[in-house]
Amino acid sequence: MADEVVGLLLAAGAGRRMGTPKALVDDWLPRAVAVLRDGGCARVTVVLGASADEAAARVPRGVDVVVAEDWDEGMGASLRAGLGALADAVAALVLLVDLPDLSPAVVARVIGGGVGAGALRRAAYGGKPGHPVLIGRDHWAGVIAAARGDRGARDYLGVHRHQLVECGDLATGEDVDARG
């Protein structure tokens, strides 16, 4: 449907500091899909790259998979591939696979500010910007053009007005880069 928010899960990286692709760590990938679904995303698309075949086996049924062939360029490549594959959504709620403490409540709060093609919002934790990020369709071309290296949408968000949605009472928003 044209009015849907699609959850876009970025899970393509090699996880060099982790020692394995993060899409293969514990239950992170299926858990993140559930967080997006339970938080209000009508559909979910997962972007894979490193160990894509092995990671695809962990993707729950009913979830679309996109492989970012240039995944080793960084998060920007994953974001470009994911947004480029979404045909009929009004907005994408972008989440990283390495945020295991996020809950559906975080997703619901970011979406809850209203969804439209012009939406541009991101979660914040104690005032510090983080993920997920809600990107309305009107912003996709600009985000795709700006998404380079490991910066994803950061440069685009740096020069475009967007709303920060405080979620520090729900999660830390901390990504996990190494095994504890």
Question: How would you describe this protein?
Answer:
The chain has 180 residues and is of the alpha/beta class. The chain has one domain: Alpha-Beta Complex (Spore Coat Polysaccharide Biosynthesis Protein SpsA, Chain A), CATH 3.90.550.10. The protein is 27% helix and 23% strand. The protein has six helices and seven strands. A seven-stranded mixed sheet has the order 3-2-1-4-6-5-7, sandwiched between helices. A hairpin with a 2-residue loop joins strand 5 and strand 6. Helix 1 packs across helix 4 and helix 3 runs antiparallel to helix 5. The longest helix is centred in the N-terminal third of the chain and has 12 residues. The mean pLDDT is 90.
SSE inventory with pairings:
Blueprint: E1 5-11, H1 28-39, E2 43-48, H2 52-56, E3 64-67, H3 75-85, E4 91-96, H4 104-111, E5 120-125, E6 128-136, H5 140-146, H6 154-159, E7 163-166
Parallel strand pairs: 1-2, 1-4, 2-3, 5-7
Antiparallel strand pairs: 4-6, 5-6
Helix pairs in contact: 1-4, 3-5
> Taking all residues together, what is the mean pLDDT?
90
- Tally of separate helices: 6
The coarse silhouette is globular
pLDDT under 50 segments (min length 5)? none
Strand order of the largest sheet: 3-2-1-4-6-5-7
The CATH architecture category equals Alpha-Beta Complex
- The proportion of residues in beta strands is 15-25%
CATH-level-4 superfamily name = Spore Coat Polysaccharide Biosynthesis Protein SpsA, Chain A
Attribute tags:
seven-stranded mixed β-sheet, Spore Coat Polysaccharide Biosynthesis Protein SpsA, Chain A, 180 residues, globular, 23% strand, single chain, alpha/beta, 7 strands
